[in-house]
Design brief:
With 524 residues, this protein is mainly alpha-helical. The chain has helices at 2-20, 30-35, 63-70, 72-80, 83-87, 136-139, 154-158, 205-208, 221-225, 255-258, 289-293, 323-327, 356-360, 407-410, 423-427, 457-460, 474-477, 490-494; strands at 378-379, 382-386. The chain has a two-stranded antiparallel ribbon with strand order 1-2. The longest helix has 19 residues, at 2-20. The radius of gyration is 68 Å and the shape is rod-shaped.
Length: 524
């Protein structure tokens, strides 16, 4: 009875199921109609009449294999450990129905993907750089296309941003990175026929590849730099002879090794065009100084073309010529600051006199041929500076008060040779005798002092002064213009005192003496 009751209930349920099932479910076998928990999702709707497509009776473990038989691409992913179902630790090991359940109606989403927490690390396209902040729809743009079908190549997404217009192919990753699309960093130019070195490393691609041109017939410097060739092609097209990729404006040509003319001194800083006016090979400049510096030759060619004898490359205006060693005439004092032209007014081969007068004739205020050796008084440190002149070398040695007298006291002009050497020439105003004793002042006076005279009348003349004569002043006897005009006999001075009126002659000394004229002395 109980068993019968169960059967009746089963029949009642079947009747109800047949009543409530939609018309599209018609055609299912009775068992399927009884056991199906609900309608399939739209994606599986076609399989609703064929339960065996997804289920194996009394064998749940066979269900994953049936899923993978239909979803072949996912089966391949799991077998090759690719894609989400092959890389995800969960999706690669668990059964399909753990994530994908069905029989919950046509509109049920059997792919429960939460985009906010989805780990893209489990896919074949790991998000890096700016991809990490890109919205999902930035790459997964079509709702009808599966996420797995989204292409993983750069060009598929960035075709519109390809400024090269496929001129460099579609392997964008060769140059670009996800970090910065606009700054290519990945391309290895060293694998081309033109490795980037020096300043080429910092150039933008467009600096050389203008107009997206990436293939060139030649990669020589001139093909790119001819517009910046300041030589205008005169120096040829082999720019690498002089320039380097490190610094284009600073030539690196080794002038010493490449030519017979080493660049030294100021030549090192001289622009190439200063010497190389034309073609480097056809018009090689001469290497002698005069060929370049003729216009700078203040000597106007008079000193020859061997400029190197006096000048060097460090400073053209300063001539380091060793005048002492090479000319046997050292330049001292103010001679050191003189220009060559002040002495060498003709050719250097013309012999020059080394005496002062040959150059300083116009400066010679003394105007004396006897004073030709200027160095006796003057020195090279300054013409106006005089040394201590030794007057002993002249015919008038300085003695006594003369030694302390100023030069101009005797030399009224610079023409020293015109100075007179007679005492009276300088001391006429001091001659108290008014020339009555002549002009030989030195007979009585000495240079030690004009008033200190020491004339010895007894030894210097034939008229001894004794008696009353010894105390007489010179003027008592010397009335004339000279000492030689004075009479030697007594009568010459004492005629007015002769009481005899000349009766006894002029030899007064026979009776009178010099002690006293009034005393008479008799001589036997």
């Amino acid at each position: 009875m109980r068993r019968f009751t169960v059967i009746l209930r089963a029949l009642a349920l079947l009747a109800c199921a047949v009543t409530v099932l939609p018309t599209r479910a018609v055609g299912l076998d009775l068992k399927s109609m009884i056991l199906m928990p609900g309608p399939l999702a739209t994606a599986h709707a076609e399989e609703e009449k064929q339960c065996e497509s997804c289920h194996s009776s009394f064998d749940k473990s066979a269900q994953d294999a049936l899923c993978l038989d239909c979803h072949e691409d996912i089966a391949v992913d799991r077998d090759t450990a690719t894609g989400f179902h092959g890389r995800s630790s969960l999706a690669s090991r668990t059964g399909c129905k753990s994530c994908h359940t069905d029989h919950k109606g046509r509109n049920y989403n059997i792919v429960p993907l939460d985009q906010d927490i989805f780990d893209h690390e489990s896919t074949d396209f790991i998000l890096e750089g700016k991809h990490t902040s890109a919205p999902c729809e930035g790459c997964h743009r079509t709702a009808t296309k599966k996420f797995r079908d989204t292409p993983g190549q750069c060009y598929a997404c960035h075709k519109e941003q390809d400024t090269h217009r496929a001129g460099l192919g579609r392997e964008c990753e060769n140059c670009h990175t996800p970090d910065d699309w606009n700054t290519p960093t990945g391309f290895d130019h060293g694998k081309t026929d033109f490795p980037l070195e020096g300043k080429h490393e910092k150039l933008l691609c467009s600096g050389c590849h203008a107009g997206e041109k990436y293939r060139f017939e030649t990669t020589d410097c001139f093909s790119c730099h001819q517009l910046r060739d300041v030589h205008l092609g005169r120096y040829g097209k082999d720019c690498a002879q002089c320039h380097s990729q490190e610094e284009w404006k600073q030539p690196v040509f080794d002038h010493a090794a490449g030519t017979d003319f080493a660049l030294t001194g100021s030549h090192r800083d001289t622009a190439c065009k200063s010497c190389h006016f034309g073609d480097l090979e056809a018009r090689k400049p001469a290497t002698d100084c005069s060929s370049c510096h003729a216009s700078s030759d203040v000597h106007a060619g008079r000193h020859g073309k061997a400029c190197g004898k006096c000048h060097n490359t460090s400073d053209w205006k300063k001539a380091p010529f060793d005048h002492g060693k090479k000319a046997n005439w050292p330049l001292t004092g103010k001679h050191q600051a003189l220009s060559c032209l002040q002495c060498h007014r003709g050719s250097l081969d013309d012999a020059l006199s080394s005496d002062c007068g040959s150059c300083h004739r116009t400066d010679d205020v003394h105007k004396s041929k006897s004073m030709g050796d200027c160095s006796i008084c003057h020195q090279a440190s300054g013409w106006e500076k005089t040394l201590g002149f030794d007057h002993e070398l002249t015919h008038f040695p300085l003695e006594g008060m003369h030694a302390t007298a100023a030069c101009e006291a005797c030399h009224n002009s610079a023409e020293f040779h015109l100075a007179k050497s007679e005492c009276v020439d300088c001391h006429r105003s001091e001659d108290d005798h008014k020339s009555s004793l002549g002009t030989q002042c030195a007979s009585c006076h000495t240079p030690n002092g004009w008033a200190l005279w020491n004339f010895d009348h007894n030894t210097a003349t034939e008229f001894h002064l004794d008696g009353a004569h010894a105390g007489l002043s010179c003027g008592s006897c010397h009335h004339g213009s000279g000492a030689d005009d004075i009479p030697r006999d007594c009568a010459g001075c004492h005629t007015a005192d002769d009481r005899h009126d000349g009766g006894f002659g002029r030899a007064c000394g026979r009776c009178h003496s010099t002690e006293s004229f009034g005393e008479i002395q008799w001589h036997k």
